[in-house]
Specification:
Strand content: 15-25%
Strand order of the largest sheet: 4-5-3-6
Number of helices: 4
Order of helices and strands: EEHHEHEEHE
Helix content: 25-40%
Radius of gyration: 25 Å
CATH architecture of the largest domain: 2-Layer Sandwich
Shape: elongated
Structural class: alpha+beta
Largest sheet: 4 strands, antiparallel
CATH class of the largest domain: Alpha Beta
Number of strands: 6
Length: 129
């Protein structure tokens, strides 16, 4: 609740901390300003900018493609999990293709990380495609 001056104008800067805190509880995200903040609107960042669309890849301007072959799909999945954990890379940047007797993983990785992530995948059973 804001306080009013005798002339009827509200002064949000004079709102007690207890009232401000009760307005903040159970809100998401933490970057949203309190609604009684007079200097900004109710949302610091538009929702569309905060979360990419479901299934959308994070765009990369210098991505390069790594293609590696694996002995089986289980080895490819384990290598992908290792790359996500240790890379770290975005899981949505990878595809695993199953052909008759070949399992191929393709990853879009930053050019600067290509050798490091390629070495990590080779350590987990990956071979040049």
């Amino acid at each position: 609740m804001t306080t009013s001056s005798p002339k009827g104008k509200e002064h949000p800067e004079q709102t007690s901390d207890a009232n401000v805190e009760s307005g903040v509880e159970q809100t998401f995200p933490a970057s949203d300003p309190v609604s009684s903040t007079a200097s900004q609107g109710s949302r610091a960042v538009p929702l569309e900018e905060m979360m990419p669309a479901t299934g959308a890849r994070t765009p990369g301007h210098d991505d390069t493609t790594l293609s590696l072959r694996f002995p089986d799909s289980e080895a490819a999945k384990l290598a992908l999990e290792a790359a996500v954990r240790e890379g770290p890379i975005d899981r949505r940047c990878a595809t695993i293709d199953l052909d008759d007797d070949r399992v191929t993983m393709r990853l879009e990785v930053p050019r600067a990380d290509r050798d490091r992530i390629g070495g990590l995948l080779r350590k987990h059973g990956g071979m040049e495609a």
